[in-house]
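Module 6 notes. Inverse folding takes a fixed backbone as the condition and produces residue identities as the prediction. Think of it as a translation problem where the source language is geometry and the target language is the twenty amino acids. Below is one complete input and output pair. Work through it position by position during the lab.
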């Protein structure tokens, strides 16, 4: 790409980043189950990839950037170093909520219990309101896989988020 084209692209890309970065960080934090540092890294990587191909982006740049972000997340999870558990003697520092939209810690903890691809399916379907077909395209799987992963993920979230009652309170007129 010529230097002149790059200079013409920079203001448009900067406007895009200002308008969409917050939503991308929120999505990344949900995908990473609340890991704010990893979310920032994923967004930064995604934005670099979007910038490099900005001149070829057609249609809806936000959707393109979301796809790049999900691909960065999936690629990150595939790295061998991520799969290994790393024990430490030190307790990590607590991280203050980043950005204007603080995430519900109960929801983030429940999402953390889901496997990464299941979590991605739930976030894309129910946070971003994407269709089954759009989600399947982003995750590179079949629509049936998206449906089953979303259904199982929602079941697990409900089980984690619903109050647990050891002894249900009987209702008036209940024969038990």
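Target side of the pair, the amino acids:
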């Amino acid at each position: 790409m010529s230097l002149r084209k790059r200079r013409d692209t920079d203001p448009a890309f900067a406007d895009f980043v200002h308008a969409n970065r917050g939503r991308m960080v929120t999505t990344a934090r949900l995908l990473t189950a609340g890991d704010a540092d990893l979310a920032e890294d994923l967004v930064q990587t995604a934005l670099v990839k979007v910038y490099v191909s900005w001149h070829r982006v057609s249609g809806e740049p936000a959707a393109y950037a979301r796809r790049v972000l999900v691909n960065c997340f999936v690629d990150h999870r595939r790295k061998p170093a991520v799969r290994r558990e790393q024990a430490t003697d030190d307790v990590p520092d607590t991280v203050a909520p980043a950005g204007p939209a603080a995430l519900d810690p109960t929801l983030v903890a429940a999402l953390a219990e889901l496997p990464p691809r299941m979590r991605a399916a739930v976030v894309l379907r129910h946070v971003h309101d994407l269709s089954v077909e759009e989600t399947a395209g982003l995750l590179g799987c079949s629509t049936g896989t998206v449906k089953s992963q979303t259904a199982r993920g929602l079941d697990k979230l409900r089980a984690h988020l619903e109050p647990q009652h050891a002894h249900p309170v009987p209702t008036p007129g209940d024969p038990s």
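Reference fact for the lab report: The helical segments are 3-31, 36-52, 61-78, 80-83, 105-112, 116-126, 132-139, 143-161.
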